[in-house]
Amino acid sequence: MPALNAHLASMPAGYLFREVANRISAYCRLHPDKPVISLGIGDVTRPLSPAVSRAMAEAALEMSTPEGFRGYGPDFGYPFLVRAIYKNLYEPRGITLSCDEIFVSDGAKTDTSGLQELLSPEARVAVTDPVYPVYIDSNAMAGRGGEYIDGVWSQVEYLPCKAENGFVPPLPSHYVDALYLCFPNNPTGVALTRKELQRYVDWALQNGVLIFYDAAYSAFITSPEVPRSIYECRGAKSCAIECGSFSKLAGFTGVRCGYTVVPRELFGGTLHRMWCRRLAAHSNGVSYPVQRAAEAVFTPEGRRDCKENIDYYMNNARIIRNELRSAGLQVYGGVDAPYVWLRTPHGMSGWDFLDHLLENAQVAGAPGEGFGPSGAGYFRLTAFNTAENTREAVRRICAAL
Ligand SMILES: *Cc1c(COP(=O)(O)O)cnc(C)c1O
Questions:
Q1: Span 53-299: which CATH code?
Q2: Ligand 1 mean position, distance from CA 245 (Å)
Q3: What is the CATH number of domain 6-47+302-400?
Q4: Which of 18, 147, 204, 330 is spaced 20 to 30 A from 255 at the CA atom?
Q5: What's the pTM?
Q6: 3-state secondary structure the chain
Q7: Across all residues in the chain, what is the average pLDDT?
């Protein structure tokens, strides 16, 4: 045997969505006449804007002409896209960045899992709990997890987000080098106000901590007091790296495009230099047609279509939230994010609630336990479905309570 990465070899299986799928198919095998509606998976369902598809197709055709052919693009993204991201997502909010602080990638999963390479192998990280598993997994594979006992990594600080604290994480109480934050949050659907987020920025500045901020859901924000970017907070350019994505903003989960902002102010330019060096070693960039497609998201037609899709999903979220609340459930999120997080009734575990819903409503969702220990007794429903299916699923859930 070669000497292998023992941290990777001993990773526990990531089983949440596989187990949900297994339970759905087991139910469907026994009841082929009862179709199940899934509000479980966090993937978009609405088609791309035609403006986006056209731009992608035109760019692909350009590539078959001698003048339009392109080989390797710039490692950090074509200037036309970097500029479009800055002009549309940052400048209008009064955030000043230079274009070489924005790095185009094939998605936020790639970037959020790669950020940990900036840290030393001994560095300590904190995550909110429940959490998007990528932040923890990438650190555990690099040896920063410690021991995995009863679903918890011994060296990772988990910041519990529960109904009792309004799903607002406490500040870390142990020494940490980096803190991962994702707001609006997946899975809780809860967002932080600018004032609440400022608290983490101030704390990070005081303690020399790096914040990794995942803004994948910023396009879903409806509340005026919720920031679209962490750089809306004072001093954030000196302590935070932000990842964004076209996946939920424009339905790019299958197209693949995202970006990361690494300001030069961050620790005297060291992190900017390190991220450039790392990307140049890891990546040859994102395909030209995909970057043209992403650019088209910001055309008038692209913007209109993306907004229409987001409004469509958020209307689903509103239906889920309002109906389940009227039915007496404790319901959270769904205002600034396409996720509704609910407390399971009668103290059921999330897994028991999934079984109950399958059996009595033919509806599936994601048990909170799959997102971390503080997810126990909670359940996630997503707004990514048709309005008809969403209404029908909610009707059936209410009848089955
Ligand atoms: C969906 C999602 C992303 C987007 O990932 P991509 O790789 O860009 O598709 C990032 N972060 C969170 C928390 C998500 O839920």
A1: 3.40.640.10
A2: 7
A3: 3.90.1150.10
A4: 18
A5: 0.97
A6: CCCCCHHHHCCCCCCHHHHHHHHHHHHHHHCCCCCCEECCCCCCCCCCCHHHHHHHHHHHHHCCCCCCCCCCCCCCCCHHHHHHHHHHHHHHHCCCCCHHHEEEECCHHHHHHHHHHHCCCCCCEEEEECCCCHHHHHHHHCCCCCCEECCEECCCEEEECCHHHCCCCCCCCCCCCEEEEECCCCCCCCCCCHHHHHHHHHHHHHHCCEEEEECCCHHHCCCCCCCCCHHHCCCHHHCEEEEEEHHHHHCCCCCCCEEEECCCCHHHHHHHHHHHHHHHHHCCCCCHHHHHHHHHCCCHHHHHHHHHHHHHHHHHHHHHHHHHHHCCCCEEECCCCCEEEEECHHHCCHHHHHHHHHHHHCEECEEHHHHCHHHCCEEEEECCCCHHHHHHHHHHHHHHC
A7: 97
